[in-house]
Amino acid sequence: MEHLENATTVLIELHWLDQVIEQVICSYLLQEGHENNWYDIPVPDWSESATPYASMVNELGLDIYQRLTIAMAMAPHVRPEILDVFFGKNARTDRGYTEFGGVIAPNHSGFLPTGQTICFLLTALDPANRQMVSRLFQKENSLMKEQIVTLGTTDDHIPKLNGILSLSESWLHYFYTGQKNGPEHSSVFPAKKITTPMSWEDVVLDDLVREQLAEITTWLSHGELLMSDWGFDKKIKPGYRALFYGPPGTGKTLTATLLGKATQRDVYRVDLSMIVSKYIGETEKNLSRIFEVAKEKKWILFFDEADALFGKRTTATSSNDRHANQQTAYLLQQIEDFPGVVILASNLKGNMDEAFSRRFQSTIYFGMPSPQERQQLWNNAFSGKFTLSPEIDLQHLAEEYEIAGGSIINILRYCALSAIRRNSFEVSQHELLTGLKREFKKENKTLNLLTTTSN
Fold this sequence. Notes:
The chain is of the alpha/beta class. Helix content is 45%, strand content 9%. The longest helix is centred in the first third of the chain and has 27 residues, at 2-28.
């Protein structure tokens, strides 16, 4: 019943859009009834409604122009036939009306609205609304800030309003179900939420690392108080920047995730492979979206393998090099100005540009675990349902073989799959050693299996 009410709200809003489109086109083409004004069409009143769509309208205080923009972007998903009227032909030119905007995609037979489409709807009878249309797509506007709609990219010589007007899938899902998901990971939002079912008890870290992490946790809990009430905003830059460095599998990503879990902050990993765009300025636009939403939602931003972008740079010798350096400089500025927590991870501190490294508030080394720590990692991994063959000596393994916690988890996964194929909960020595050998092979290391058995 609740989902039916949610859907009804959306359909009523789209019916209003349908009426507005019909009236604007009627007035624009001087058809019968052109003397009427679309402003006189009753706007659905959601002030007393608690459906997800109504709640979004009320909480953000959206005006009729913002609501028509959302409805226009939503129409292809829910009632695409509403937009068929834009397929009409201009009798004078025997072609479609350029001013209607829109595109036709190969796998979609309907009309896909663009920024020009909503521009026509709002300015065809009132050209003074043009400035207001421009504001709809500025980053400060709630539609952009909350990532409800996006305006697609265009080539440099194509008007920006020719970009496709798209509705966020996560918001559409919310309108129907009331369940909020984070922004979807895509080229226009190259970041993805990372979570873990683990807790601090599952992580093996030395005392120095834990002490440094406590400082970040304190900033997450009290940073705003320090900046405002203590007047630190006049003395230091906003936010907190940390570098996690060390070999793969030593817990950098997991630790970042646990910091968010402990302080009830979402952690989003930025996909560096997706931030470079062929469009000049598009990378900056996509990154800006991430930082704007992260600021609003108080996310922790995590950049993995950061040396790929922030590593030592040589003199630019081509336009591509210069463009890459420009993008990096823009991202560095965004990170410095971000009032929240940014964590960068790298395998080697030496790979990072020294000038940038000096901007970190903390630099934390995640080293390979000691024999004692490795034994704890082995014990943690193979606890629970599993039993180990009596001939397996985890203490001996921990003492003999330097291996990271991530690799131990990979061995656990291999052993679990092997054991379940045998319909058993016991891990054999052969399975564990084979898994260990596989991990060493990944790092081009050899393994002397004869030394791994207990005496």
